[in-house]
Amino acid sequence: MRTGRIRDGLVLAALVLYAMPFFWQSLTSVRPDAELLPLSHLLPSRLTMVHYDAVLRQSLMPRALLNSLGIALSSTALAVGLGALAGYALARLPVPGRGVILLGMIAATAFPQIATVSPLYLLMRALGLRDTWLALILANASFALPLVIWLLAGFIREIPRALEEAAAVDGAGRLATLRFVVLPLVGPGMASAALLAFLFSWNEFLFAYSFTATEASRTVPVALALFPGVFEVPWGDIAAASLLASLPPVLIVIGFQRYLVRGLLAGALRE
Amino acid sequence: MSDRRLGWLLLAPALALLGGVTVYPAIWVIWLSLQYRIPVFSISRWAGLAHYAFLTVDPRFWSAAGVTALFAVASVTLECGLGLGMALGLRGQRHGRRAAVALLLLAWALPSVVTAKMFEWLYHPAGGLVNFLLGGRPVNWLGDPALALPSLIAADVWRTTPFVALLCYARLLTIPAELYEAAEVDGAAGVQAFARITWPLVRPILLVALLFRTLDALRAFDLMFVLTGGGPAGTTETLTVYAYRALFQTLQVGFGSAIGVVVFALVMVVAIAYLRLIYRQEASA
Would you tell me which residues 206-225 of chain B have a C-beta closer than 8 angstroms to some C-beta of chain A? Predict the structure, then answer.
């Protein structure tokens, strides 16, 4: 029993060490500028909020956070909304060519963004969507959609058919059954799919870097990659900005871990 | 309305979005790769297979292909080895499982641009933690052509090992304890139990993780683009970074698309291997 606790503690300590790059960045974000370069002591002599102050007041980060949040929430809603309808059709309705569609979905999850970025750029330019939220919402939703459909079709298949048949006996049509029986039951599955779609959009860099031009649509990863330094690199400010960029993923990993893990495993094991 | 028609109706919006924003560009890119397209000079004419012919003799392309291969093989091998090790370490965890998984998944969930910025600072010659822990030697991790790719691989391994570890961990938890008890009765413990019970049961999932990671390693872009930008001296320039530079920096849309198509083809070969694998697993199950 005791050795078990000690072992558990050691494993946790090892994992804290593993996450050290993140904690180091957190410490850098509150370290005074004078103690950053060169690094002479592990721990700073005092903590400061000047870097957060600079990032929140003088950089484009607040606007980028707003863009990222809006784009990620919209593309997640779009992907999960369309994905739930399509997932139900693939799981329960006699769709001709179902096998081919499912196979296509798996293949589409593997598409490299670098291959579609040039035609998509031309398409967005032709539609007048360059530097808009809509361009990224459509691109991110479409890229997340195959995985979302695959996950939701799988989760819907796990629901006992008897429940839907009972609803049908009571006179409920297909759409009413979907709305009042299937969707409530597949809620946790939708949460899993939504978390993965949200993380994908929040973290997405290549499309955002290529399709955006100004602060009107620049997302957090783009703002961070382009973080300006006038004479020298502002490492403290960059650390503060990366901490802000990490907030949603950190909250998800801590607060919604169960759904995230379920989605990850279902997505990888394809069962 | 018949169920068939309803099915198509429910599928239509998703397929329309996928068709317009994923499938259509994926086909269009092949068409683009067969043309000379340099918008700034208003050049737009048929090239046929000229770009692909050029790629076969382009030293920069072969260098990028070599970097991509080395990056993929090294990072995926390390990730699978370390991931399995972490899963074995986690398996016996009784207390603090949630905290353990949170710490594990943190690295995986962060935006890759954040990871790039974090490691850029860790590797900083004068301000970085790595050199400080090594006793203050001013090693230029990202600026030295011999060290840049290994440093990049280390950052990628840090970021994606948790994914492999989570898959293996989930599999390990489903192995019943009785199997090990029975093996112990037969005198098999430790390494023998691992070889006889754990390994055969974990191997299929490790293979899945390996294919997934290979897919991601071949199309990886963010980390190297932000951390090293392909430098120094092209030692970390992968095919994706080369394609991006051709597309958006030298603005050769046709040529850049051709490199994109090569990445596409490589990824699809791995994806087909993956599909065959699950097909076979389903057939044998």
Answer: 208-209, 212, 215, 218-219, 221-222, 225
Question: Do A80 and A193 meet the contact criterion of CB atoms below 8 Å apart?
Answer: yes
> Residues B77-125: pLDDT tens digits?
999 999 999 999 999 888 889 999 999 999 999 999 999 999 999 999 9
Whether residue A110 and residue B271 make contact (CB cut-off 8 A), yes or no, is: yes
Q: Which residues in chain A (195-224) have CB-CB distances under 8 A to chain B?
A: 199, 202-203, 205-206, 210, 220-222, 224
The answer to whether A129 and B11 have CB atoms below 8 angstroms apart is: no
- Cα separation, A166 vs A159, whole angstroms: 13
pLDDT for residue B101: 95
pLDDT at A271 (0 to 100):
47
Q: Which helix (H) or strand (E) holds B35?
A: strand B35-38
Residues B106/A243, Cβ–Cβ less than 8 Å: no
CA distance B23 to A67: 26
Backbone angles phi, psi at A43, to 5 degrees: -100, 140
Cβ under 8 Å to A: B residues 138-197: 158, 163, 166-167, 170
CB A165 within 8 A of CB A171: no
Strand pairing of B35-38 and B43-46? antiparallel
Task: State whether B111 and A245 contact (CB < 8 Å).
Answer: yes
Determine whether B77 is exposed, middle or buried from the number of CB atoms within 10 Å of its CB (0-12, 13-18, 19+): middle
Q: Considering CB atoms only, which of B8, B98, B118 is closest to A22?
A: B118
Cα A215 from Cα A217, distance rounded (Å): 5
Cis peptide before B232 (omega within 30 of 0): yes
The single residue listed with the structure tokens 């099915």 is B7
Question: CA–CA separation, B230 vs B224, rounded Å?
Answer: 6
CB-based contact B114 A221, cutoff 8 Å: yes
Q: ipTM of the assembly?
A: 0.93
How far away is chain B from the Cα of A242, in angstroms, using its nearest Cα?
6
Residue with tokens 């990222």: A68
pTM, 2 dp: 0.94
pLDDT in tens, A141-164: 999 999 999 999 999 999 998 888
pLDDT of B285: 57
